[in-house]
Write a structure and sequence with these properties.
single chain, alpha/beta, 10 strands
Amino acid sequence: MKLLIVDLLAERKAFGQEGVRDIISHFENPEVYLWSPHTSKRIEYDFGIVVDNPIDADFVVITGSRRNVSQWEPWMDDVAKLIRDVQVPLVGICFGHQIIAASLGGKVIRAEKISQFVAPVQYDDGRHVHALFTHQDHVIDSGEMEVIARSEHCGIVACKHPTRNIRTVQYHPEATEEVIAKAVQYGDMSDEEAKMFDFRKSLIPFKQALL
């Protein structure tokens, strides 16, 4: 299968390369394509094919980003067009969750403080899970997307589309303990920042969250 990653942390070795590595590990032998419309200075991964435009894929993943949907930039128009046009399964993580909602009639605002912690999440089907959050933008109107999970600090944590194969989460299921350790090793994060995440709790994995 052809897997298109809208790779919006491609300038960061841990959260970009290692986060994407975790994402693709949940697919069986995918042919990976990496599209990073936000930067011309991505680092070189040891996997995947870098493309300048979206390709016809069998599955699309939009990652997190250091940019903000509430502070819209021109390249985001291209991502929004992909969201509106794509016919294959699409999932969004953090920034991906936000830009999918915004592109389908929703609204995203910027909070005063960043949310950076492990927190409980309640799904409408009765599941109670723990997830790793690091974000400052919040979806306050999900547009076409249906809300399926919430947390105390964030009213719209996970969504699905009622007719299209689209799912999104505000949290980071790809930010495993191993990825956080790599972030410290590569200098993407300090030891003190890493200590904010409580890995004694069992966190919801990417496959359970989005697949």
